[in-house]
Write a structure and sequence with these properties.
Length: about 240
């Protein structure tokens, strides 16, 4: 059913959704990789499309930036549109010598400085993690296609311009690979609603040495991640979640 943020009707959205942050990247994926594409949403320019990728129905929809935005859109997809699986794709900043520009990170878990989990009234600190089936499928596909992918923890932050100069170093000291801004909310929504989620990233910036990709390099460098997410979605659907 339509929501305040999504005009899709029941059945318009596939069971698995690829979710970039950028609406124009959602459009790029639909235009470049999907057949028989139908746009189901453009409210607030958060574009959503459903199409066919190698004989499997897959949707792609933007999440916007930050955990509040991801929290809204992923919750509605899971709760009101019967979506089972969301694969977040996006950029991240490296804070580890294990990953550098253009590398892909598969987030097995996501630490966070966000207060998102407070709503659940948990008697402790919650650790949001990926669905292992999706994670394992993505990792196996990365090996099959020769795409270098590092599995590890990331941190989802609410702050892009952080006033604490030691912020990245502190997380790096705990073995965290990269910083991004959405995955903790996605993983918590999936857990609370008994759904499945995975986040994968292309490293666009090295926050330790200041190197970064240009706008053009980001677009080119994201294609491996997009293909990996689509193949993961396809095989996960064919295998019935195995």
């Amino acid at each position: 059913m339509p929501t305040p943020h999504n005009t899709a009707n029941t059945g318009d959205i596939a069971k698995t959704v690829i979710m970039p942050g950028d609406p124009l990247r959602a459009k790029y994926i639909a235009d470049t990789y999907l057949d028989n594409v139908v746009r189901f949403n453009n409210v607030r320019n958060i574009y959503g499309y459903t199409g066919v990728y190698r004989d499997v129905d897959i949707s792609v929809m933007a999440s916007g930036m930050g955990m509040p935005s991801m929290g809204i859109y992923s919750y509605e997809l899971f709760k009101y549109y019967d979506v089972d699986n969301i694969i977040r794709i996006g950029s991240a900043g490296s804070i580890s010598d294990k990953v550098d520009l253009r590398d892909i990170v598969l987030a097995i878990g996501t630490s966070t400085d966000s207060n998102y989990a407070k709503q659940y009234n948990l008697p402790g600190t919650y650790a949001p993690v990926a669905d292992f089936g999706l994670l394992n499928c993505a990792y196996e596909q990365s090996k099959l296609y020769g795409i270098a992918a590092e599995v590890g923890n990331v941190v989802s932050t609410d702050v892009f311009y952080n006033d604490n100069p030691e912020y990245n170093k502190a997380w790096s000291n705990m073995g965290v690979l990269a910083v991004e801004m959405e995955s903790a909310a996605l993983y918590m929504n999936a857990a609370r609603l008994s759904k499945n989620a995975l986040a994968m990233f292309t490293i666009s910036d090295n926050l330790m040495n200041g190197q970064s990709l240009s706008v053009e390099e980001r677009q080119e460098g994201f294609d491996d991640m997009i293909k990996l997410s689509l193949e993961t979605a396809r095989l996960y659907n064919i295998g019935g979640g195995v």
